[in-house]
What we know:
By secondary structure, chain A is of the alpha/beta class. Chain A is built from 12 helices and 12 strands.
Amino acid sequence: MSLLTVENLSVVNSSSGRLISILRNISFSLNSGETVAVIGETGSGKSMLCKSIIGLLPPGFSCSGNIWYITSDNTKISVITAEESDLLNIRGKEIGLVFQEAVASLNPVVRCGNQITDVLSVDSQIDKNRAKILARKLLETVGLSEPERIFHTYPHQLSGGMAQRLALALALAGEPRLLIADEPSSSLDSISKKYYLNLLNRLKQENNLTLILVTHDVDEALSFADNILVLYAGCMTEYGRTGDIQNAPAHPYTKALLNIARALKENDFPAPIPGEISSLTNLTSGCRFHPRCPKAQDICRAKEPSSIDISDNHYVRCFFPLDTI
Amino acid sequence: MQAGTTASKTLLQIKDLRIVYKQKTTFPAAGQTVHAVNSVSFSIRQGESFAIVGRSGCGKTSIAMSALGFVKPSAGTISFMEKNIWQLNRKDIRRLRPLIQPVFQDYGNSLNPRMTVNKIITEALRAKPDDQTHTDTVKQLLDSAGLDSGIRWRYPHQLSGGQKQRINIARALALHPKLVILDEPVSSQDLSTGVQLIELLNRLKQTYELSYLLISHNLSTVRLLSDQIAIMKNGVFTEQGPAETLLQHPSDNYTRELIEASNLTNLSKTGQV
């Protein structure tokens, strides 16, 4: 049974008085220990997908469809319909979240160590002294040398890479089974980024973590994930195993992203995708990618494509999927 | 690959630059000194693009801030068009300042949230009293930055990340600069938007014969924008040379380490780089 199942998830923002579709018909499932990378341009709805899964949508946003999560005691709960008290039992404990802006997600006036002990103390069985020992151990686990010194520092005294690792330690404090990492390495330099991803990889293996990695770095997704979910303007344009997506992308958007990543790797000048991602407040009819699609035809402008099975566990939303053979 | 530029006269020359910060108030580091930049020398010729690459905190932005006249060097000289910018009087500095324009990494916070795009760019144009045709100029600048002129009545929060950075670029161009200092111009952007911006910056460089001082930690994007690259570590340049040569045949271990780190295949399971 899958740890997480997302079924036809749609998110709508009605805070401005009109309905704005943020996510539309997202479906995927995640088995224990698996990693899915969510890729797409800024504004494609990646972060909103994370917030939906953890039940933290801002006021004025509403969900339809379903998000099923299997808890450690084998209870199946629906994140969308569950009571807030039930969500509190899984949020930060069963499901950990690492935010994109690590420094902004840390409390600037609380010492780093105390931020971890605060999380640990939510569990009433852990006393203060034990929490301090565990916090130092967590700092060590995430590769922060001198845990004793780091324990007493404030977030502003840490470098970007250290702050990001501290944020990871905080997310791990609740011993989550599912970790959602929202662009955890996008602000890091290349050496810190590689160190961080290696660390995440090691912790994933050691703790059998299930991971949702949100990134706009295609290379990072390809090297890290078992499955890839491609989002474009709130729509899931393609989903499949990493190898399938890498070797036989079916959606023109996925192919364009892969081409850019490949060109950068092979020291060529990449061809950018023409135009900009459609604004969610001003969506055109039909396929959301059609204004930028080199293969767009009349039907793409008129109708929204439905999901097509390309092969086992490989889906695409396109009227003219690319030749995947 | 980046089109080569026939270099002409030297525009910016930095000799033996040292920048030392003294921690004044922050306990427990009060009184400590930080040697951010140590004996850094380089020059940028007209139409040339020079990149400084290194990890966060290595001193890259300090050099840029010093060249912009925001951070006073502890030692060394910064000459722009053969004038030491730190020895100029206020009148000369005002004359020179439009010629060096920055584009910052934090594209959102660089734009006043209470101003429309039109006002943001017009404000920059006010520094140039001879320009009386602001409306046309704003439209031309937006066009140069690849934006539709209709965008000028929007506020920053109504723009995408890529559009905001294009506005920053348009504003930098407003004063006809000779040198644009690009501090991580695409690092916060997604892959596709980043490539579009690099293409735009390359085009503007050719069209307006601009020189760039590019600050970045990402070698794969630096490669697309630079003629010369300097690798910086702990305040010093560890290697410096033509972009192609340096990336194809790095002679320093640290350069090799940076190149290796930008390749994410074969991630280690032990947590080691």
